[in-house]
Amino acid sequence: AISFFNMYDLLKQLLLQKALQEHAVIFILDAFDAFVTGAKQLLVYNLLDWMQSKDVRVALVGISCNFNVLAQFEKRVKSRFSNIQVVVPRPPLKHILQATTTMIENVVNWPAHVPAPPDAFHEHWDTSLHRLLFDQTNWWWQYLYDLGKPTDVFVQLLHVAMTHLTPSAPCLTTREITLVLGMIGLERRHVAPYSFEMIFHECQAFYRQHALQYPKRRELLDALSNLLATHVVHPATTKQQHQPEYCLVRLVLRPTDILDAIRRKLVPVTTVVDQWATNTLQ
Questions:
Q1: Residue ranges per structural domain of the chain
Q2: I need a surface site. Which of 121, 201, 265, 270 has the fewest CB within 10 A?
Q3: pLDDT of 167-197, one tens digit each?
Q4: Each residue of 89-127: pLDDT tens digit?
Q5: pTM confidence score
Q6: Phi, then psi, of 57 in degrees rounded to 5
Q7: Per-residue pLDDT averaged across 3-19, rounded?
């Protein structure tokens, strides 16, 4: 990484050379949000200060997904910016899904030592992919797309979810479903957000009621970590918590959608867990 002072000298020398050659310079900051921190904000201020010189023709363009990014800068920095903002709306979900299909449709590069599957496999893959993205669950994709802004949040969510699916584990595990139902139970009593400890005690009551053996705390904590990784739940605060069991979380999915999926047998669960979802939490 280049230190602030080295970067400062580098830019100053660059602008001096361009001024002597009567060239114009355009700086494009494609991660503008990263420049709201102390030293980087000072660098932006110096760039804007140099723009006041008649000898240097400089333009600064900041690209951000945050519409109010300028509000995070110091007053002396904000005052240097013009009021020109070009707002590019998010593309429709349909365009994102079409781009996703184009990227992953029939593009598997099979290793030389692995026999390639028959054409029927590729046809089935393409048909299943189209049905998943456009036919059966379009309303669900729209919900997730509206939930995560900007667009790259949705793409990251799609990537994480896909990489956690395997033929042997195509869905959430029973322990993960149990934790989710514990969260729904807390929300039914208007308790939100909630920590692992609160969810754990809720699940303990369920296991105790049905005379079932408690899972180990470590196993349930790992299950919660997987729920966070797959964005089934997300942290309720940006504050870093060194002990994960005390981190406050919220459900990303709507409780009614989860319970409806269990009721319609779309999610494989044990009979006891099914009864908990359909009889107690509905």
A1: 4-78, 93-163, 174-280
A2: 265
A3: 565 567 888 889 999 999 999 888 889 999 9
A4: 888 888 888 887 777 765 556 666 667 777 787 788 788
A5: 0.51
A6: -100, 105
A7: 77
What topology does CATH give the domain 174-280?
Answer: Arc Repressor Mutant, subunit A (1.10.10)
> Encoding tokens for residue 133?
């993205």
| Class of residue 235 by CB neighbours under 10 A (exposed 0-12, middle 13-18, buried 19+) | middle
Q: Write out the two tokens for 54.
A: 């008649």
How far is 163 from 160, CA to CA, in rounded Å? 5
The span from the CA of 228 to the CA of 245, in Å, is: 12
